[in-house]
Amino acid sequence: MKSILVPVGSSKNAVSHLQYAVDFAHAFGAKLYVVQVYNVTTKAGTMMKVDDMIERESLGFLKSHVDKVNTRNVEIILKTFKGQLTDTLEMACNTLDVDLIILEPRTTSIKDEVYLGKTSGKIIKQTNIPALIVPEGYVYKPIVKMLLAMKSAIIKKEDALIPLMTIKNQFKAVLNLLLVKTPYYNEGDLEVSEDLSSQITNTTISENATTYQGVLEHYKDNNPDLLCVVRRKRGFFTKKWEKSTILKKDFSSKLPVLVLRGLK
């Protein structure tokens, strides 16, 4: 893992979240892109040069946050981008060859009952970037145990599990697998490949209406430091993704959640 990107918003948690991202990048010897995306619409015919002004303010905003953290000699690169949030972030990640994006659940100080705010929800829902969602106020610590939860072990994209395996190998972590047999089960969904099986310590098979319910039932038994789920059309956050905002009553996690791109 060589390049990590962290968007910075105006939440009260922004500085502590940035510190987590720095500490995480330090563990991998990765460089860290600290970014902000802005979108400005001006009236036709106006001559105001607002882009340069906003870019300067945005860079100043990012620098003020970086100045408040222990950079631990991590290479930190400040970037601002103009455009629509999800498209611009995905383009930036592709251009900068980013391996992982680290998100805080709420990038602005919104209602406490919200787990995943509109901005973070859009990034998770509308992009194909591997993402690590870090709970508010969570302090970095090495990852000892990981739980991979999915309803199908069929993997067609060879690079889909790279972020998961990179984290596992870096921390020499234990990886447990939870396979959830849902009403959408297809023949072969619970068959684990030799490559994946060789990385797994323990496998649990559960029957639940959704992957999410399977996680609720079993994650305490595994007691992981990191939960890993897969972005699918009928994946972990399917119903939650009908709107970008996700409420804590629908889902809340006190541990980091790694969201992988689709496996098929």
Number of continuous helical runs = 7
Within CATH, the superfamily of the largest domain carries the name HUPs
> What is the percentage of strand-forming residues?
15-25%
The mean pLDDT is 83
3D architecture notes:
This protein is of the alpha/beta class and 264 residues long. The protein folds into two domains: 3-133, HUPs (Rossmann fold), CATH 3.40.50; 145-255, Rossmann fold. The chain contains seven helices and twelve strands. The strands form two sheets. It has a ten-stranded mixed beta sheet with strand order 3-2-1-4-6-12-10-7-8-9, sandwiched between helices. It has a two-stranded antiparallel ribbon with strand order 5-11. Mean pLDDT is 83; it is low at 107-115 and 238-252.
Please provide a brief summary of the model.
The protein has 7 helices and 12 strands. The protein has 264 residues and is an alpha/beta fold.
Kindly list the characteristics that best describe this protein.
single chain, about 260 residues, alpha/beta, Rossmann fold, 10-stranded mixed sheet, two-stranded antiparallel sheet, about 25% strand
Write the layout of secondary structure elements.
Elements: E1 3-7, H1 14-28, E2 31-38, H2 50-66, E3 76-82, H3 85-95, E4 100-103, E5 114-116, H4 118-126, E6 131-133, E7 145-150, H5 162-171, E8 174-181, H6 194-197, E9 203-207, H7 211-222, E10 226-230, E11 246-247, E12 257-260
Parallel strand pairs: 1-2, 1-4, 2-3, 4-6, 7-8, 7-10, 8-9, 10-12
Antiparallel strand pairs: 5-11, 6-12
